Amino acid sequence: MLSVLRNRTYRHLFVAQVVALAGTGLATVALGLLAYDLAGSDAGSVLGTALAIKMVAYVGIAPVVAALAHRIPRRRLLVAADLARAGVALGLPFVGSVWQVYLLIFVLQAASATFTPAFQSVIPDVLPEERDYTRALSLSRLAYDTESLVSPVLAAVLLAVVGYRWLFWGTVIGFLASAVLVVSVALPGAVAAVREDGSREGARSLGARSVAGLRLFLSVPRLRALLALDLAVAAGGATVIVNTVVYVRDELGRSAGDVPLALGAYGGGSMLVALLLPRVLDRVADRTVMLPAAFAVAGLLAALAVVTAAGGGGWRWPALLALWAGLGAAGSLILTPGGRLLRSAVPPADLPAVFAAQFSLTHVCWLLAYPLAGWLGATAGLSTATVTLAAFALVAAGLAGRAWRGTAPAGRPAPATVTVRPHRHTHRPTRRRPLHTPSGRPVVRHHHHRHPAAP
């Protein structure tokens, strides 16, 4: 898996992702403590509102930014987003009221909604070979899981010697380091999108470009399947994120120190899959891995409902750890190959818009799952919430299977549905308008080739 780090451009981008994630993890801890300072016992309400603002920014901003991104060089866009995030983090230690927190969180998450899809769409161009790209996806998943385990520990160590407001300075350093690393490499130019009528992407209105990725995402069967799979992941993940503390403290009567152990089991299952999956995907199709994992989420949630209803017994704690590890593994089996599926489903010119659409739609899934896990768990009980989410995941898995039915086994367009357009590039390649072969390699002369049209 680590062989892809030999690519200097990708290595710098990966390290940029890691340091930015570490900074975000520190900010998450510090934000909770800041909310408690400002609101006391109402800190939960403040954080809940901040999370809602985060989701609104993610869902609404990403498609609009994707519509404008073709006008801005990729490196400049990524660096600007990092600098905006660093500026917000710099201001957070000095806020004195709740509304200021809400405003800064919106700006911070709007910048993240700009950075993340753009970053994701760059990696396929940096690593054009599918084998390398698969390993990059696994490394990215591993980075997210590692951050969820390491950042709280790092924050605890720092809090032993400094006040929580100093954690925001760690966030600033993380985002600035990310910007420096992005600046240090030359990124491939974005492929100009040319429509069937010969018009270029910039010729369409902003509104049309904003919804283009969403329309394309919902029109391609494999991408509709991916959206359904994201619903299944959200059902399992929301159960863990929202209700872990309730299961550990109230349902099982265990100490507060066991809460991070349960969350660690979830992260450990995800990390194990991220390490092993590249070799598996070298041999089997994405669908062969992803669909069974979605049904596994439903089965694991159903098993959790049984454990919840079983009442007392010391066996329930190891059972909970095993179920959490299973949910983490199943989620990673779905999320890690997702980038491969996006890459194979649309032409390179449409990747930025589709990544932005997936970013928004995935957070819509979580926005649906969080209330189901939290409100149902609080009002109707954990058993009812878990059974409901298990049914939610089962329906999502069934919809994914139905959407995927009849497509090519490897997740690529079936030959009968692909429109192949032979053509010749006649412009002289420049830095802003490079030429590439179908495999992504740059060429230096006029070039005849064929590639599939958008599905």
What keyword list fits this structure?
single chain; 455 residues; mainly alpha; Growth Hormone, Chain: A; two-stranded antiparallel ribbon; 71% helix; globular; disordered C terminus
Task: Provide an overview of this structure.
The chain is mainly alpha-helical and 455 residues long. The chain has 2 domains: 1-185, Growth Hormone, Chain: A (Up-down Bundle); 213-406, Growth Hormone, Chain: A (Up-down Bundle), CATH 1.20.1250. 71% of the residues lie in helices and 4% in strands. Strands 1-4 form a two-stranded antiparallel ribbon. A two-stranded antiparallel sheet has the order 2-3. Strand 2 (435-436) and strand 3 (442-443) form a beta hairpin. Helix 3 (74-91) packs antiparallel against helix 6. The model is unreliable at 192-206, 409-427 and 435-455 (pLDDT under 50).
Compose a concise summary of this entry.
With 455 residues, the protein is mostly helical. Helices cover 71% and strands 4% of the residues. Keywords: Cell membrane, Membrane, Transmembrane, Transmembrane helix, Transport.
